[in-house]
Design a protein that fits this description.
The chain is built from 21 helices and 12 strands. By secondary structure, it is an alpha/beta fold. The strands form 3 sheets. It has a 7-stranded mixed β-sheet with strand order 4-5-10-9-6-7-8, sandwiched between helices. Strands 1-2-3 form a 3-stranded antiparallel β-sheet, with helices on one face. Helix 1 packs antiparallel against helix 2. The N terminus is likely disordered. Belongs to the class-I aminoacyl-tRNA synthetase family.
Length: 473
């Protein structure tokens, strides 16, 4: 007998409907492959047709496998004006709202699940310690199948972590640290392997770079990543330009993904056009491949059933929606995801920080003086125009970049709340709040720079050498 919908289909978002159709299609294929009774197959097919009809009614589009609804990246904030819409894809984040992207609407539109108090409490019980501040403060706010990861962990079944970095410049900024800070914590509390992909091939395809420059940026970025404190016995960092030519398992998975995703699908998901080079069109399969343990036979002993957990910013989700759609069709488990908010530019939360604009970012190479100057000169303020008005009406922490940055980097919850109350009441002035941020970031970046000095070329080589890690599979 076919599954009945768990809720009214009209209440589902376009992407949730899309995923329901996909799941039901997988069920029909499994029933047919297992030679199930005809009435059971027929009931499942009827449910599939019903879901497809609901999908078309809701979206105005016919369901196409691997091609989510076309408007996924456009989030209307309740108005009809184009300038009031958020736009999110893997390369561009734009919003007219000084508070930043509306993440609640993004969850609905992308069809992911909110990281709520129940999930955070479950993580705390599983690991036996206080959750990371990024979880406590909603910086990692959305997930796909994190409950499955916790089920596996509680049943002594292993999983692994995968995150990455697109090396578009020699120096990284503080926003680039967010996924690595959190991934390091996840690796420590769950004690699992980690693979870190450096997509130097992507940057060569999208940027005006030579392959040599892209690879050199990857190695330099690897030093900053290693300086975050990752355990060399549990972590493999790889460059696509380097590793792809040496791993048959990795390339086989790329080819499998490529076979199951059409040109029409990648155009719909990523917005590619007929004038884009074929390298861009095929690249999503390369970012998908590390989601499968068989891409790393030296680590997982050729096992294909080990689930992957990917901490990343929400703009990378299109890659992994595609991956999750393909995975069952190539006999692989779907990767789980943890999504973070975007790290705002100094000038405000309307866009992400840019490695190409030195004044939009605090770089990991900045001196204490540069950090102080950038924050004082460029950090967008939520304060009032005059001291008198500020004392009377208070500041707005929702748009103040200095407070946003402290939310990421100030560990003490009580101190953060005190600052929020003082700034909102007008007791604390903008200059004083900026001073707190300067005093928080200066030692943090100085400590990172000191650790980076200790990272040698030989250490980078060791991290990037394919090898067995300290785990048995």
């Amino acid at each position: 007998m076919a599954d009945s919908p768990n809720c009214d289909l009209k209440s589902l978002s376009p992407l949730q409907l899309f995923e329901r159709v996909t799941e039901q299609g997988e069920k029909v294929r499994a029933l047919k492959a297992g030679k199930a009774p005809k009435d059971e197959i027929d009931a499942a097919v009827r449910m599939l047709l019903s879901l497809k009809l609901s999908y078309k009614t809701t979206t105005g589009q016919d369901y196409q496998a691997g091609l989510p609804p076309r408007d996924l990246v456009l989030i209307n904030n309740g108005t009809t004006k184009e300038e009031d819409e958020d736009f999110v894809d893997p390369w561009t984040v734009q919003t007219s709202n000084a508070k930043g992207v509306d993440y609640d609407k993004l969850i609905v539109r992308f069809g992911s699940s909110k990281i709520d108090t129940d999930l955070i409490n479950r993580i705390e019980r599983a690991i036996g310690q206080k959750p990371h501040r990024f979880l406590r403060r909603g910086i990692f706010f959305s997930h796909r199948d994190m409950d499955q990861i916790l089920d596996a962990y509680e049943n002594k079944k292993s999983f692994y972590l995968y995150t990455g970095r697109g090396p578009s410049s020699q120096a990284m900024h503080v926003g680039h640290l967010i996924p690595f800070i959190f991934t390091k914590w996840l690796q420590e509390v769950f004690d699992v392997p980690l693979v870190i992909q450096l997509t130097d091939d992507e940057k060569y395809l999208w940027k005006d770079l030579t392959t040599e420059s892209a690879y050199e940026y990857a190695r330099e970025n690897a030093k900053d990543i290693i300086a975050c404190g990752f355990d060399i016995n549990k972590t493999f960092i790889f460059s696509d330009l380097d590793y792809l030519g040496t791993s048959t398992g990795f390339y086989k998975n790329i080819v499998k993904v490529q076979k199951h995703v059409t040109f029409n699908q990648v155009k719909g998901i990523f917005g590619f056009t007929d004038s884009d080079c074929i390298g861009k069109i095929s690249f999503p399969a390369i970012q998908a491949a590390p989601s499968f343990s068989s891409s790393f036979p030296q680590i997982f002993n050729d096992k294909e059933n080990i689930q992957c957990l990917i901490p990343c910013a929400i703009d990378q989700d299109p890659y992994f929606r595609m991956t999750r759609d393909v995975a069952p069709r190539i006999g692989q488990p779907k990767p789980a995801l943890l999504h973070s908010v975007f790290f705002p530019a100094l000038q405000g939360a309307q866009t992400k920080m840019s490695a190409s604009d030195p004044n939009s970012s605090i770089f990991l190479t900045d001196t204490p003086k540069q950090i102080k100057t950038k924050i004082n000169k460029h950090a967008f303020s939520g304060g009032r125009d005059t001291i008198e008005e500020h004392r009377k009406y208070g500041g707005n922490c929702d748009v103040d970049v200095s407070f946003m940055y402290l939310t990421f980097f100030l560990e003490d919850d009580d101190r953060l709340e005190q600052l929020k109350q003082a700034y909102t009441s007008g007791e604390l002035l903008t200059g004083e709040l900026k001073k707190v941020l300067i005093e928080t970031l200066q030692p943090l970046i100085a400590a990172h720079q000191e650790r980076r000095k200790q990272v040698t070329d030989e250490m980078v080589k060791q991290f990037m050498t394919p090898r067995k890690l300290a785990f048995e599979f």
